Amino acid sequence: MEDAELTLEPGLATRHHSVESQSRVRRRVLSLAWPVLVQQYLILSVQLSDRYLAGNFLDEVAYQSAQTNAQYLGWTLACFTTLVSVGTTALVARFVGAGDRNMAIKATNQSILLAAVFGIGMSIVGLSTVDTLIGLLQLNGQTADFAVGYLRPLLTLYPFQMIEVAGIACLVGAGDTRTGLFVLGGVALLNWPLAWGLMPALGFVGIAWGTALSHTLGACAVLSVLARGRAGLVWHVNGMRPDWELIWRLLWVSVPAAADSMSLAAGQLWFLSIVNRLGDVASGAHGIAIGWEALGYLSGAAFGTAAMALVGQNLGARRPDLAARSGWTAFALGCTMMCLMGVVFYALAPQMFALFCSTDKEAVVEAGVPVLRLVAFAMAPEACFIIFTYALRGAGDTRVPVIFTWVGLLGIRIPLAYLLTSDYLDLGWLGLWRGANFGLLGAWLAMFADLVVRGIFFLHRFAGGRWKRIQV
Q1: How far is C-alpha 116 from the chain's CA centre?
Q2: Which residue ranges make up each domain of the chain?
Q3: 33-63: pLDDT as tens digits
Q4: Closest by Cα among 232, 251, 245, 216 to 313
Q5: CA–CA dist 376, 369 (Å, integer)
Q6: Pick from 220, 192, 217, 218: which is nearest to 207 by CA?
C-alpha cells in the first residue's frame, strides 16, 4: 500500500501544480485585463455621450449621420496608431520578460519619437484631404459639411493622441495596465464637461473639440508619468535621439500590423459608403448600433491586450507553453464576457436605441434594432478574431493576419454588402445580377458572415502554434 501511495504522489503533485499554475495565469490575465476594460468603457462613454448630445439636443438626423461618418474616420486615425503601438508593446514585453530593462527603456523613448513624427505627418495629410475623404464616403450637402467640421479638431490635435497611445502601449508591454486606466479615465471625465460646455458656443463642432482637447491632456499626463519613471520605464528627451536599429525592429513588427489595421479601416470605410447609400436614417442607425456593439468588442480588446502582454513576456522568458496558456485563458474569459454582452444586445435593443433618439426619430430605432440583435449572435467568432489578433501581435506574428483581413473584407463583406443592399448589381461582362435589397440588415448580414470566417481563421492560426518560433 505504501508503494502504491508513493507512485501516486508525483502525479498528484503534477496535477496540483498544473491547477495552481492555471489559477495563477487566470489571475494574471484578469489583473491586466480589468483596468483596460474599465478604460475602454470610459472612452466608450465619451462616444456615447457625444452621440447622446447629437441625438437629443440637435434636431436633424443629418447630425447623427455626420457623426457616424466622423467617428468612423476617427477610428481610422486610431488604427493608424498601430504603426507604433504594436511593435512597442511586443518589444517592451520581450525585453521585460528577458530581464533587459535598459532595452525596454530605449524602446519606450524610440516609440514616443515615432509617435510624434507620425502624428504630425498624419495631421498634415488628414487636414489637407479631409474634404476628399468625406466625398469618397458618398456624403454630400449638409451632412458632408457637418462631418468635415467635426473632423478638423480631431486632426489638428492628432499628434497628442498618437503620443498618448504610444506611451500607454509601452506601459502595457511592461505589465502596467492601471496607468492607462487612470489616464484614459481622466480623458473621459474631462471630455464630458468640455464637450457639453463647448457645444452651446461652437455647436456640433464643440463636441469634437472636447474630445480632441481631452486626449491632448491625456498625452501630457502619460509623458509626465513616464518622465518620473513607471513600471521600470523612463522617458527623457535625450533618449529620443534616433536609434535606427531599434526603430527598424519596432517597425518590423508594427508595419504589418498597421497594414492589417489600415486595411480593416479602409474596408470599414468602404462598407460605410455602402450604408450611406441607404440614406441618413440607415447611417444614423448604423452608427448607434456600432456604438453599442463596442460594449462587446472592447471587452475582447481588453482581454486581447492582456494576452498580447503575457504572450510577449513569456516568449521573452522562453516559456512558449505559458504564452499559449495565457492566450487561451484570455480567450476563454473574453469570449464569455462578449457572449454575455450578446444576450444584453438581443434583450434590450429597443431600449438601447431609444436612449439616443428623440421621439421624432422612430425610423432610426426601427432600422437599428434588428441589426443590433443580429450581431448578438456574432460575439463568439468576433472574440476569436479580436483576442487572437492581439495574442499573435504579442508574439510578433503580424504578417499572415493581413491576408485574413483581406479575405474577410474583400472576399466576403464588401461583395455581400452590395448584393444584400441593392435591387440589381451591374457586374459588367458578368451581366446584371438581382440583389436582395434587405437595407441596413443586409449590410449587417454581410458583416456577420465576415466575422464568422475571420474568427475561424484566427482560431486556427493561434492553435497552430507557429507564432511561438517568430523572432522580433
Answers
A1: 21
A2: 28-469
A3: 898 888 778 777 766 666 666 555 455 555 6
A4: 232
A5: 11
A6: 192
